[in-house]
Amino acid sequence: MAISPTKFIWMDGRLLPWEEAKVHVLTHTLHYGLGVFEGIRCYKTRDGPAVFRLKDHIKRLENSARIMNMKIPYSFEELVNAVKETIKANEIEECYIRPIVFYGYGVMGLDPTGSPVNVAIAVWPWGTYLGEEGLRKGIRAMVSSWLRIDSRILPPHSKTVANYTNSILAKLEALKAGYDEAILLNVEGFVTEGPGENIFIVKNGTLITPPLSSGALGGITRDSVMKMASDKGIPVREENISRDQLYEADEAFFTGTAAEVTPIREIDGRKIGTGKVGRVTKELQHTFFEAVRGKIEKYLHWLDYVK
Ligand code: PY5
Do strands 206-209 and 236-238 pair parallel, antiparallel, or not at all (unpaired)? Predict the structure, then answer.
């Protein structure tokens, strides 16, 4: 997906012109994959641009770093302010926000000690991840032959750069097979999530999503959708889902900052429900977009206004 450049990128405390935000080819993270990142969105609202659950994303960034034993050289407040400052400097109303914490140029070899911990924050306009049509009509997914990384191998609850090679293998396999997206099972055979999205199914009016112990990332969109569903009186359960339970679902959808709320209309060549976007999915998707755009009073506390 092509990047649309903006004006400035925040790097280690300074706003640099977009073209100057560069790293050395011997950047440690580039070689060994130990770095952590976030994906956040800022939406246009009546009261100006607002970042959706910014503090929760920065908390997760700190948690990802803690799991990987990385020390971020900026405080929580500094990171929150840096995100807002970057959006302001770029004079942008809606954008995707990508903070990344990485080991820079300093040493080679697996011990990163001696490499600086660098932090960058880039923002750019990014349309919906799985396409406008996918958002409206649903996408086609396949269960991947690649299993989701297991916490005994790499910690899936940390958004670590290296973890995404597992995601990319699954994504490319799905695209090559003619699908839009992959669904990964864990080493026990239960459904975990997509390569960059959490997954939900609806069965007999109940919303079901795999528990975090399955290896699914603690998605912030996942959390928001669960809260919105229970506010609507929809029963919500976190429970292991088997592959065939996917096929039997009445509805299915992905959630994520990039993917927002994207319906799944087919899995492994089998129609989900009627093959059309389900009623619960449609309602939650609608509420999600209203909430992020500041149109729902009780969810305004999720918004961090930039101005
Ligand atoms: N699971 C994985 C593996 C993810 O990478 C993501 C987010 C999610 C679930 C959903 O989490 P949240 O709702 O907090 O975003 N993925 C990133 C995103 O910005 C990167 C996608 C390329 O959506």
Answer: parallel
